[in-house]
Amino acid sequence: MAETDEDTRAYVVVVNDEEQYSIWPADRRPPAGWTAPGARGSKQECLDHIAEVWTDMRPRSLREAMRGTG
């Protein structure tokens, strides 16, 4: 995509079992192992949402192991 092209597609925020976040085109089914919990919007809106909610980048299994609960 050229730098001057504006991405007008809708996206959804997707999350995997390790509580890692990404974005995915809204018109496509999320890949295996990922779910779309509800956040939807422009690419930037989805990235902004992820920046708000994904405050600990460590995978869930690592966080649990470090707490001694995994």
Automatic annotation (TrEMBL):
Provide one Gene Ontology cellular component. cytosol
Give TM segment ranges.
none
What biological-process GO terms show up in the record? siderophore biosynthetic process
Q: Which parts of the sequence belong to the MbtH-like domain?
A: 2-52
Q: Which Pfam families match?
A: MbtH (PF03621)
Looking up InterPro entries in the UniProt record yields: MbtH-like_dom, MbtH-like_sf, MLP_fam
Name this polypeptide is given: MbtH protein
Which source organism does the UniProt entry give?
Actinokineospora globicatena
Gene for this chain = mbtH
